[in-house]
Amino acid sequence: MREFVFVGQPARVVFAVGSLRRLAREVEAIGARRALVLCTPQQADVAQAASDLLGPASAGVFSGAEMHVPIEAARRARQHASEVGADCAVAIGGGSTVGLGKAIALESGLPIIAVPTTYAGSEMTPIYGITEAGVKKTGRELRVLPRTVLYDPELSQHLPVPMSVVSGINAIAHAAEGLYAQDGNPVMSMMAQEGIRALAQGLRAVRRSPGDMAARSDCLYGAWLCGSVLGHVGMALHHKLCHTLGGSFELPHAQTHTVVLPHALAYNAAAAPQAMVRIAAAVGAPDAATGLFDLARELGAPTALREIGMPREGLQRALELALANPYWNPRPLQADALARLLDDAWAGVRPQDSSFPRST
Ligand SMILES: NC(=O)C1=CN([C@@H]2O[C@H](COP(=O)(O)OP(=O)(O)OC[C@H]3O[C@@H](n4cnc5c(N)ncnc54)[C@H](O)[C@@H]3O)[C@@H](O)[C@H]2O)C=CC1
Ligand SMILES: O=C(O)/C=C\C(=O)CC(=O)O
């Protein structure tokens, strides 16, 4: 029997090749007059182009976005926005830049327009993360949800293939866990399955031809769907493990998601059979966990924690941290099975092919 609660979140989404050129109109549409453009130092050129498109509606560029949003960067950006009289911020970049916009919005209520250039999905969520004294705190607040999202596939055209792949699999992880979320619902499940399908197809094509705009469009469409799932329903074991490994061992965010996901799905397979069937169907494989492991390998992504800087002697500590403050998970957390999971993920072992459930 179906039983669910669905609460939609407000967001205006504009999706088109070249949609960046609508930026000035979108700033005006939210009633703002001066927009501060946010970016990382590496993306100053594209941010300057956005600022030029805004013309007199630009309050300049702030290029101080950093990974995991250090609180000092958030304070500097907030102060700068106030000094230049900005009544809106445009965050152009990946999850780190969108995260900086959210940190400004959290304190000041400044409306954000997000222009994502990776596939991480943060632009569709009311989730913020801020790092203070080496500890990353996350929370959900509707006021940080971007008011408008401009998806322009042209902007991800030069995202290097290895980064495109792991970023896309980071998005797939949101959808995969959304399919077995405690507060899941049929709308999010449809979006999740379609998001995984679009990303699996798009990433394969991007690997063959990085400048293929149809492929970039598929990936960004998938990122939108998967990000929406993350924004609407709760995450489970996989996200907990990745946040623990990223936060305490400084592992790279999207690469960590890529390595851990097949193992977290293998762990949860028997407890969430319907979700596994949908994930497997979406990647075009007989089994969800091995399907995603094989996809990562096919796309040249890392498949072992040891490849991305995890010390083997840290695994026990990671396990303790993940168990100390767990998220809800469809399968109860069992220390010995989780230790095996982490060991397999560290070594890069292909998860055990489970004979059940299958997509066909
Ligand atoms: N709050 C939320 O809902 C979510 C937050 N996140 C957060 O986002 C962060 C990771 O974001 P990512 O997008 O993976 O990486 P990122 O935003 O840190 O970007 C990685 C690097 O790639 C560069 N880059 C971005 N787009 C590019 C492009 N099109 N071409 C060339 N270079 C480009 C950036 O300037 C940066 O140097 C993490 O801190 C994670 O926690 C991720 C997903 C959801
Ligand atoms: O840590 C954050 O900034 C909030 C959520 C995420 O990073 C989601 C994810 O793990 O990709």
From TrEMBL:
UniProt keyword annotation of Cytoplasm present: no
Record keywords, A-Z: Aromatic hydrocarbons catabolism, NAD, Oxidoreductase
Top-rank taxon, per record: Bacteria
GO biological process, one term: 3-chlorocatechol catabolic process
Domain (Fe-containing alcohol dehydrogenase-like C-terminal): residue spans on this chain: 165-346
GO molecular function: alcohol dehydrogenase (NAD+) activity; maleylacetate reductase activity; metal ion binding
Pfam families found in the cross-reference section: ADH_Fe_C, Fe-ADH
Reaction(s) catalysed by this chain's protein: 3-oxoadipate + NADP(+) = maleylacetate + NADPH + H(+); 3-oxoadipate + NAD(+) = maleylacetate + NADH + H(+)
Documented EC number(s): 1.3.1.32
Domain spans labelled Alcohol dehydrogenase iron-type/glycerol dehydrogenase GldA: 10-153
InterPro entries, sorted: ADH_Fe/GldA, ADH_Fe_C, Alcohol_dehydrogenase_Fe, MAR
Recorded family membership: Belongs to the iron-containing alcohol dehydrogenase family.
Protein name (database record): maleylacetate reductase
Organism: Verticiella sediminum
